[in-house]
Amino acid sequence: MGIVNVTPDSFSDGGQWFDTEVAIAHGRHLVAQGADIVDVGGESTRPGAQAVTPAEELARVLPVVEALAREGVVVSVDTVNASTAAAVVEAGAAIVNDVSGGLADPAMAATVARAGVVYVIQHWRGTPETMNSLAVYDDVVAEVCAELEDRVSAAHAAGVRDEQIVLDPGLGFAKDAGHNWELLAHLGDLAALGYPLLVGASRKRFLSGVVAPAVADEPLARDHATTAVTALAAQAGAWCVRVHEVAASADAVRVAAAWRSRR
Ligand code: PMM
To answer: Is 242 a residue of the active site?
Structure first.
């Protein structure tokens, strides 16, 4: 899954794709590099990021979704807003990627149930303003699994079917570096919940701990570490990785597949 952030303030790509035509071209480029899915987002989730209205968010993503879906691209939309989800599905989006797992908007699960599209339920404990203070766990893997199961139950209650559901541990969302590594090391426990898994590690701050110190503060310098996470996540059974730099991760996924096929 390649990322197109149609935002002026994303932590990792800082407004590079904010213009509609540039965003569409970037989506095409990601597909050419090997992305199976393009994830389009109109609101930055970076800690401290400014909230945008659902109307502004929709205005940013809709033309990009329409153009890419028309060209046959499998489009995912990164949104916590049910109104945005409903509109982008109308425009051809095949996946709703909700970083709040339905907690931000009580209408989201029913909207996704009606639309019948794939629903990515990410683990989340609060908005970018509050999430860092909520990164408190006794056993991060067990608690993330239990909280994801609660969100699955809520989604079921709203009519979402099992075949629609994908789970995501939400790296960096109410988690510190230690929590993120713990979750990655125990992806099998998350997979045991019985749903496909999506992993979003790309360029995140926790990777700075394994990157050469001189460049660790630069998000782009975390791409090699991201590729290593992709290989290991694929090996551990992840269904999808969400990344900014697609070519290297696509190779890493194929390496893991070739490796597995000879076992
Ligand atoms: N991370 C970000 C945004 N959306 N969606 C899913 N499903 N999983 C993630 O880990 C995730 C996400 C934040 O990263 P960005 O600002 O680089 O898009």
So the answer is: yes
Q: Secondary structure of the chain: what % helix, strand, coil (to 5)?
A: 50, 10, 40
Give yes or no for residue 78 CB within 6 A of ligand 1.
yes
User: Is 5 close to ligand 1, i.e. is its CB under 6 Å away?
Assistant: yes
Ligand 1 center from residue 262 Cα (angstroms): 33
Which residue's CA lies nearest to atom 10 of ligand 1?
200
Q: How far apart are CA 221 and CA 218, in angstroms?
A: 5
Please state, in angstroms and rounded to a whole number, the distance separating the CA atoms of residues 206 and 197: 20
CA of 200 to the centre of ligand 1 (A): 6
In terms of phi and psi (left: phi > 0; alpha: psi -120 to 50; beta: otherwise), the region of 142 is: alpha
Q: Enter the DSSP assignment of 207.
A: G
Binning pLDDT at 50, 70 and 90, where does residue 195 land? very high
**Domains, in order of start, for the chain:** 1-77 (no CATH), 78-261 (3.20.20.20)
- Confidence at residue 7, expressed as pLDDT on a 0 to 100 scale: 87
CA 221 to chain centre: 20
CA distance 196 to 163: 9
Q: Is the pLDDT of residue 204 over 80?
A: yes
pLDDT, tens digit, 9 for 90 and up, residues 65-117: 999 999 999 999 999 999 999 999 999 999 999 999 999 999 999 999 999 99
Average pLDDT over residues 192-197: 98
Prediction pTM value: 0.96
Q: How far is the CA of 253 from the centre of ligand 1 (A)?
A: 19
For ligand 1, say whether the CB of 168 is within 6 Å of any of its atoms: yes
